[in-house]
Amino acid sequence: MQHIVVRYGEMSLKGKNRSDFERLLLRNVRTALRPWPDARAERVSGRILVTLQETSLEPVLARLQRVFGVISLSPVTVTDLQLEAFQQAAIQLLREYESQHPDRSHPTFKIEVKRTNKRFPLRSPEIADEVGGACLRALRRWKVDVHHPDITVFLHIRDAEAHVYGRVVPGQGGMPAGSAGRAGLLLSGGIDSPVAGWLSMKRGVELEAIHFHSFPFTSERALQKVQTLAQTLADWGGKVTLHTVHFTEVQTAIRQHCPPPLYITVMRRMMLRIASALAQQHGLLALITGESLGQVASQTLESLHVINAVTRLPVLRPLIGSDKLEIIELARRIGTYETSILPYEDCCTLFVPPNPRTRPRLAETEAAEAKLAVDELVADAVARTTSQVFLAPEWA
Length: 396
Ligand code: ATP
Ligand code: MG
Fold this sequence. Notes:
alpha/beta, VC0802-like, Rossmann fold, 3 domains, binds adenosine-5'-triphosphate, binds magnesium ion
């Protein structure tokens, strides 16, 4: 039998927020554990304790590392509240370290005790001395080094039991999936919008992705790419719905009726109008984009201002303060980068005029839309939108 302690940010939450957080996190941890029927997860005062009967540890740790809301994880030995039991568990940990690092002739350790159980008769420094002494007597090659030990043995004396462990694996932090309601992610095939979506998921948002597709100007493969991205995001948060909007008619109409320097601005406004209509239809409370500032010529404050004017929904831009290199690094870590850099064009690349206005004004943009049948185009696009649901394997 093996145990994993799952830690979350209980300190930063109060009252009902805290109990909702714990309930959702426990549900999500249990869902993540579905592939391992012998795994159990229970709440034990401010932590979740996972128990495995036969399953090996590493795949479970790797999966739980991806659950939003988890701050860190440790494989632990659970012992009785007995000094000898702590000593044995600590010695066992050091032995494991030895067998994994046979090259070290004089490995070093330290013992770090946390005693939340104030009724336990010995105090932390005394416990550390007793356990450290037993380790030194049992394992002659080892030395104590309190500054730079090869391994720290953590000993947590809790009310009903103790946890002994040597590893702390970081989680993602954030809020449990499903704790923040649903929002619409404008998902292109590029690098940025999947990352913006992931950052929102990390704060508990359930995503409904909205993709604008201009068949036959953009290929079936461009669409598949976006489907792959939706699946990759779903693998993190459980579920992503993808709404695919047929955008060809809108783009054609813009080309017919608007001045070329404002194509992009008008196109973005049309995207946002259609996304807002879909949001209303599906009960989404905000929209999310991968926009940043200054990254491309069109991403100026003037441009965001003019684009934003068509909607009353909050438009979240999680990447507003990120540099491209940071975004790429995150894209690699979350697994979207390789898909995003596949070459298939999306609808915007095909639509760039030779001299786009980078600082459009609201009045000139509204004038540029005068001949555009905005409401009809929006209604048609919404009516022709198709939807697909992507689920993480264990949610299916
Ligand atoms: P990305 O890498 O996300 O495509 P980008 O740096 O290429 O971003 P733009 O192409 O200017 O920037 O797009 C800005 C934002 O507009 C995107 O992050 C995305 O949220 C939205 N967007 C652009 N094209 C589409 C599309 N075809 N479908 C849905 N949303 C889109
Ligand atoms: Mg793009």
